[in-house]
Protein: Glycerol dehydrogenase
Organism: Synechococcus sp.
Amino acid sequence: MEVSTGYLPQAVFAPADQGHPAPRVFISPQRYIQGRGVLRSVGRYLSLLQAKRAGLLMSQRSSRNEGDLLLAGLRSAGVDAVVSTFQGECTTDEITAHTTAFSKERIDCVIAAGGGKCIDTGKAIAFRLGIPVVVVPTLASNDAPCSALSVLYSPEGISQGVEFYPNSPAIVVVDTDIIAAAPERYLVAGMGDAMATWYEASVCLRNPAAVTTVGARPTLAACAIGEVCAHTLFQEGCAAAAAVASKTVNDALESVVEANTLLSGLGFESGGLAGAHAVAQSYTAIPHVRANYLHGEMVAMGTLAQLMMESRPKEATRVAEFFAAVGLPIHLGQLSLSSSDTQALEIVSEASLGFPFVGNMPMKITPEFVKSAILDAHHLGLSIPEQIGDSAYRHLQG
């Protein structure tokens, strides 16, 4: 996995020649706003930036479902909008095309409204134009909204690299009415992504050689946030999934949306990544997996593999039972793979070693070790009682 050289945070926070250990660094958006109906107030929130003309990047789904309401709110606040439609993958060509179009419009901020890849594309555009980005996630499926980085993909959807930015999103606005109206699968996938936060940050905190995405040591604050994130999911995850299934907003949903979006975003960026995301990103190298499964579903499998790398089967069982209860995959069959698919397992295992932060694991990582952990997690998943997982997995089977 390549790292773009446009901006390298390691050179700022932890240069190799500084002669002392890396500092602790905490990264966060300027404002995070979550609640029912807040989408219509985005234009008012832009007054914090003194923005009067915005470049609005929307996914096709968001344009259909939320576009009119968002544009009406901007107009009522006296903000002009130039609309561009995201085509589905955060690629360099997609970023360049929108950057070129927006550069002709004299905009003073970018609004990115959609899922994780649309949001990452919006962040990349704003960086190139030198203006703030306002993030409006319409799904709680991943922790991209609060971070100062973008994951880049090939046109086919294969994970190819990461790009860092000197500034976090200026404002993140999460309308829980919109989250509740989306399919349950997206919220559940977000739980898979968010659950990894605590386990990866915990590894990084314990390993004195581990560094975060910006080359710094994890902060206690980020690790505490990661722990609260996991606790919230264990306590409220099933109730939140049920709320979305019935298109209802309640306290459980509000808590899980915050965990998926804010807590996980702050926790991973300032707490660190490790084995879970190394394995997860590598699943995108398998065509039928990347075509049919969401990032958080792959991270769920990566988290179980990391816990097996750490020799923590009891905790892995606890996590697997939770994943099964909310409807996340817990064995290879639920990613349309098989333990006998040697070629696919070798591809994932080899690719995991190319993930920039797999070295945060406190042991020697080899393809054989990763493959063994993936298979151990698979067999654990198969051992989870059927009554826990079969009914909950309905939204992946459909």
Observations:
- The domain at 26-179 is CATH 3.40.50.1970 (Rossmann fold).
